[in-house]
Amino acid sequence: MENSVTIRSVTPSFAIAGGEIEVATEGFSAIHGEFGCYIGALPARVVAASSRRVLAIVPEGVAGEAGVELENRQGRSNTVTINVGRTIAEEMHIVANPAIDPRDGSVIITRSGSRGQKLEHTLYRIEPDGYVDELPAEIMNPTGIAFSPNGEMYVTNRAEGTVCRIDHGEGVAVYASGLGIATGIAFDAEGVMYVGDRSGTIYRIREFGRVSEFAEVEPSVAAYHLAFGPDGRLFVTAPGLSSHDCIYAIDADGKVERFIRGFGRPQGLAFDIDGNLYAAACYKGRHGIVKIDPAGIAAETVVAGNAMVGLCFDRDGNMIVATNDTLFSLEMGINGALKV
Q: Global pTM?
């Protein structure tokens, strides 16, 4: 016997716990108290429902492939599978992208703390086997993390306005200072470093201590986020309080243009090898990771989740997604543009 309730689609098909998915239906009766939604066999909270669609929240405790089903008086629907992120680290304080160590594929993240707050451990390494290791390097308020083309790790310190080189995960050496509220960091194809001061300036650092102003963009209420695109332009988010923020693209001469707009608090950025840009943002009322085509014309939410601040891609094609306090891994089969 065919199901009287049919799920036509579930979007997006990737999510983390707490993310909102949309279930498109046929033959569904949304009478209050007479229907339910299940994700991974667990009851999901429904935030809106009609005969054509249901909005539901992915419950805690679901990870990996999870079946989505609807139920009402007519019976249960067919099952549509989504992929839910697996938790790989908790109780952190992450304010920007995680980073992949090119030496061994481990993930580097922060426990940043409030500005000026000194914590015992602030940098962590997640080994490929899942072990979480505290790095002995002492740095206050680490924010942005990036690896140079030769594999050296650099971290911004927003409390002191510096960028530091972390030698073998231990020694800390100030590489450049006077960078304001230093947050985002990225390297271009030539190995030149760029750092974003969230009060409005992007700095270019060609070598040890040699700092120059590169570009000016709007000040941010949070961390700047930087990533170089395959065309050599520097892409920047400066999250504000608007629901119509933009992502900037800056050419080699420091000329700033608005690449695409329409986002609520856009944050971490990453590119895949095909030139698609991924951003942690709210788009058309949906929170999560947004995929943007290389032309900056088409955009869609591909991962559902709240409080996302950053992302990166590991060697296995997994998307590593960071919220304010938790790190997730999603099996998406995407090859990132950064060589790891």
A: 0.95
